[in-house]
Write the structure tokens for this entry.
Amino acid sequence: MNKISLNFLVKNRYLTDRFLFRTYAVSSEDIEKIRKFKEDRKKNFEDPLRTFNAIKDEFGRYKKGQFKLPPLKVPLYSEYVVIGGGIMGSSIAYSLKNRAPDSFEVMVIERDPKYTRASTTLSVGGIRQQYSLEENIKLSMYSAEFLRNVKQHLSVLDDDPPDIQFQPQGYLFLATEAGEEQMLKNHKLQKGLGAKVELMKPNHLKKKFPWMNTDGIALGSYGYENEGWFDPWALLSAFKRKAISLGTTYVHGEVIGFEIEKYLPVKGEDSVPELRSNFLYLKDELGDIHCVEFGYLVIAGGAYSSDIARLLHIGEGPGLLSVPIPVEPRKRYVYVFNCPTGPGIDMPLLIDPSGVYVRREGLGGKYICGRSPAPNEEPDTSNLEVDYNFFESHVWPTLCQRIPLFECIKHSDNSKVSSAWAGFYDYNTFDQNAIFGPHPYFNNVFLATGFSDHGIQMAPAVGRAMMELLIDKCYITIDLSKFHLNRVYQEKPLYEQHIV
Ligand SMILES: Cc1cc2nc3c(=O)[nH]c(=O)nc-3n(C[C@H](O)[C@H](O)[C@H](O)COP(=O)(O)OP(=O)(O)OC[C@H]3O[C@@H](n4cnc5c(N)ncnc54)[C@H](O)[C@@H]3O)c2cc1C
């Protein structure tokens, strides 16, 4: 009897016999589906005649020399299961498989393989070294090096090498007098870590960027290497394709619940029962339920990671389960406009002290821009509609004041904005920084989420860090222990000053 059918008979019997504690699922409809799925499974395996016939079938096949069953639509078991096939999940899967392609199974579960609402594909794909935290600077510098050699890392035999359309161009952060001290502090840290950044006084800025109005600016910080932007879709596709070529299984489905077992960690009547989980339920594109057994679980569900964690009772139980993952979707608009007489090719990605950012898009006089809303202006996240008034009231005035050449779009034929889109930040409401590493309650559950505005650029380094944590059981390349969930329990936020 081959391995698959053995798994099928043994593991599912085990499941229905032992794991009937409670299923946490998203909606009452899903709970009902899971209940029915379990009931059917139980019936099948409790029926000795069915089991006998299944074994008989197997031996029949074996006798006919048919040693392999057709592959299952959803494998029953995977040592590592990653929920979310965006840039984080795909980079983690790639790093795991790249380390040891034949040693274990890796499965990525993604509910929307077209990525219509994923942060990754709706991002603007920028990379910079200018952060205020050592970890973020290191993650970004590692990723820049990875992207420089992306063809070497992510090429797949007999396929064209990936082309992520990398545009090397520095970020220019501008500070008023109030922000000068922080900028000097950040600069010292960045330089100490080897980042290629320089500070510029207003007269220097004016010389280098004559189109800029430096009124109110005390200092600028410009990155002259390791910064720029790339095509997010191309990078995601490259990670995914490479991960698959190394043996990762991508499954189209939505994780809707976990089978949770209650057990006594220490023998004795007084010990408190703990929960653990090694089984998840997913709903495929036809609405059918599948059960997957896992050894380790990585939650990389972007803006929806907290919802996935809740299925494991995280944020809804006592003690260590009482703290939810502080990540939620926050809508951000990106506006595109034409200005053929704008600053042109040498323009850096400029970030005004107000938070308005702008960069060129391509070489034909197009620009993209945006700004994060103030906390009291956060838009509705139930849809991805764009608020064009936000551009008029919160972006356009600053843009024109800082770069008077952009006045030209006022006179363009139609509206100022030629197109626009919205996406969700995987926003960490606690301190706008990554929530990474092991969950303190479940020793087989890990998190990679909450990067807010800077996830896509850090994905190569984050994938590697997760691989080290899972396989080596410690950090080897970059220590990310400051990003563990512990800081949320201890109420010690780790603020990144440079969130755009
Ligand atoms: C407008 C905008 C601009 C940005 N600009 C930048 C930038 O310049 N530089 C930068 O570094 N970052 C930027 N970001 C942030 C960056 O895009 C994100 O931090 C990063 O893409 C997060 O990747 P992810 O894989 O965690 O999330 P996602 O890409 O959202 O992937 C998570 C996936 O999980 C899946 N999923 C969720 N729940 C389930 C479930 N229950 N079952 C199965 N699948 C599930 C989702 O379908 C989704 O595809 C920007 C974001 C936005 C919105």
Observations:
- DSSP finds 14 helices and 19 strands in the chain.
